[in-house]
Amino acid sequence: MSIGGMGGHMGGPGGFGRTLRQDSSVKDHRLAPGTTRRIVEYARPYRFQVAVFLVLIVVAALLVVATPLLLQRIIDDGVSHGDRRLVVVLASLVALVAVAEAVLTLVQRWFSARIGEGLIYDLRTDVFAHVQAQSIAFFTRSQTGSLVTRLNSDVIGAQRAFTSTLSGVVSNVISVAVVLGTMMVLSWQITLVALLVVPLLLLPARRVGRRLAGLNRRGMELNAELGNRMTERFNVAGALLVKLFGTPEREQSEFAEKAAGVRDIGIKTAMSSRVFFAVLGAMASLATALVYGVGGWLAIDGAVTIGTLVAFAGLLGRLYGPVTALSNVQVDVMSALVSFERVFEVLDLKPLISVAPGAVDLPDGPLSVELEDVRFVYPGAGEVSLASLEGLPAAGDENGVDGGSGRRATAGDGGLRDGRARRTTAGAEEVLKGISLRVQPGTMLALVGPSGAGKTTLSTLVARLYDPTSGTVRVGGLDVRTVREASLHEAVGVVTQDAHLFHDTVRANLLYGRPDATEAELYTALRAAHIEPLVERLPEGLDTVVGDRGHRLSGGEKQRVAIARLLLRSPRVVVLDEATAHLDSESEAAVQLALDSAMVGRTSIVIAHRLSTVRKARAIVVLDAGRVVERGTHAELLSAGGLYADLYETQFARQDA
Q: Which residue ranges traverse the bilayer (predicted)?
């Protein structure tokens, strides 16, 4: 028996090399009730392929004893009796068995890929669709990397349950049973000698398996830290910060330190694996020596034949690999099941925003917007997210304080400014306290007030990024909870302070708002947004890539492209959340012209910080601490001498001058 042959069986269906790297802690994990039943439901569409796959595994496992038995017959019946014809026939059968094993391996691989990739597709599309249905609160709390891991690593781990784990367990169990049975029939004495070596194989397998699991877990952590550092430094915003405040020597030193950790753990892992396989090879050689020693003694006495001795050597290589792999089968199975459970954890998270049965479309024509006694409390972490996706300490949950910074989430944050703010609904402070207002179709309402007054929160309710805790938000006279989501988003357009553009062309970013738009319509929107001359000057025009988050464009240019996208969609209600707040005066003037075009003939709600915008509004609502404290026109509110007059003196007077 060769060491290499034995290693081949270990790295085969049993996936022993992978088994050593599984985290042994999962074997004590308790699965959520119903997990197994749901796994079976996912496998149901592939039941025919799974059945054929299992049959092929059984056939392949039965063939493992064919070659050793044929070699026995070649020696005992062919060579010993000088029967050349029999030797040729049996040797030809050995070749046919080898071809059959190769064909079975290929067919098994096809079915394995068909089942595995099909499951990956089903799980990924289900998780992606479910995550897309989550409210914006979910995304403010969840780490993007954790979500991507669920769609990649955990989905692939779940897929292994039906490919490598399933095939490994079935194949190894059948192989061990068939090989042991065959060995017992050939010689029970030599079989007992061969089994004496099994504990010597299992002991290092378990010990090294635990060590490698710990090293692998630490290696994953170090690689994740290294990856996070590269991600932070290589995106545009991070690279700019490094250029402005960092030093190359410090960055290189810190990166080298983390890379050295990955290097060192890699060396330890490689050496631990090599030591184990060296010990395993030594045990294999010991087993071979024992078999030939005891078997040779018995052959001299005539208790067994030379062919039987050769067959034993071949069978031994097909026994120890599966036995060692089965010693860790519990870890293998639980690792796959835990991956499924982590995927189901995301699928079981109920979206905060749901559409009522029988939802309808908004009516045609101009739309009014109305809030009636609206109260709102930002949902707690347990309502919208999973602790495993947040990756943050739970400190401060009950007080609405961020566990890391001690920063309290304010009404103005809207849960959007600081996604780390952790707050539970029970006993939390209301952000909006009985807001009632109405915007007539085709008119503009300006919202003003100090920071944290609830302006952004109010605007998110109109677009139904959140639902009010109590009260009603109506668009076109219909409660937004009874309106089809697609109809509402088609009718309500939003421009935020920081417009987001995908790392794609200008054309693709515009078409995201309306995929069927023509070239002429694209340029009409660009013209209305006062961005057409810039686009025409770009190297590739509409086909110029704007870069990560649109960083190849200035802030004002990004905003105008976003406004062009909004105009292309042609919403009937426009919500503007301080869309020029962070721009220089020149960019602000250009964006304001674009916004003026966007609001013509549309119902508009504007969170305003410019006096010219406020003066154009048909009505002004002043918010403070989540309440409407004043409403009226610019002149009326100035003469009233209240909060608006104070804001005018502190914010607007310089603009008036």
A: 46-66, 86-107, 161-180, 186-203, 275-294
According to DSSP, residue 396 is labeled T
- Are 470 and 434 a contacting pair, CB within 8 Å? no
Q: Are 128 and 151 in contact (CB under 8 A)?
A: yes
**Measured distance CA(396)–CA(404) in Å, rounded:** 9
267, 435, 618 from 621: Cα distances, Å: 66, 11, 10
> Exposed, middle or buried: residue 556 (CB in 10 Å: 0-12, 13-18, 19+)?
buried
Which tokens is 349 given?
């998270």
Domain boundaries, the chain: 3-347, 369-389+409-419+428-497+570-656
Name every residue whose Cβ is closer than 8 Å to that of residue 40 and which is 6 or more positions away in sequence: none
Contact criterion met (CB below 8 Å) for 213 and 21: yes
Q: Is the Cβ–Cβ distance between 34 and 42 less than 8 Å?
A: no
In CATH terms, the fold of domain 3-347 is ABC transporter transmembrane region fold (1.20.1560)
Contacting residues for 118 by C-beta, under 8 A, at least 6 apart: 45, 46, 49
**Nearest residue to 442 via CA among 612, 618, 563:** 618
CB atoms within 10 A of CB 426: 9
Sorting pLDDT into bands at 50, 70 and 90, what band is 46?
A: confident
Residue 475's closest CA among 319, 382, 362, 352?
A: 362
Name the CATH architecture for the domain at 369-389+409-419+428-497+570-656.
Answer: 3-Layer(aba) Sandwich (3.40)
Residue 92 pLDDT > 80: yes
pLDDT for the residue numbered 652:
59
Q: Find the angle CA(224)-CA(225)-CA(228) to the nearest 5 degrees.
A: 85
Least trusted range by pLDDT, from 133-142, 152-161, 188-197, 581-590 = 581-590
Distance CA 168, CA 330 (A): 12
59, 57, 52, 86: which is closest to 71 by C-alpha? 86
The pLDDT of residue 582: 54
Q: Determine the distance from the C-alpha atom of residue 395 to the mean position of all C-alpha atoms in its chain, rounded to a whole number.
A: 25
Distance (Å, whole) CA 505 – CA 546: 6
Residue 478 CB partners (closer than 8 Å, separation 6+): 360, 362, 363
Of 624, 601, 612, whose CA–CA distance to 652 is shortest?
A: 612
Q: What is the pLDDT of residues 18-29, one digit of tens each?
A: 444 444 445 555
Q: Provide the token pair at 393.
A: 């300490």
Rounded distance between C-alpha atoms, residue 37 and residue 52, angstroms? 21
- The total of other beta-carbon atoms located within 10 Å of residue 407's CB is 15
The alpha-helical segments, DSSP class H, found in 235-247 are 236-245
CA distance 45 to 570: 43
Q: What is the DSSP letter of 408?
A: B
Instruction: Report the pLDDT value the prediction gives residue 16, as an integer from 0 to 100.
Output: 44
- Tell me the pairing of strands 470-475 and 478-479: antiparallel
The whole-number pLDDT of residue 473 equals: 92
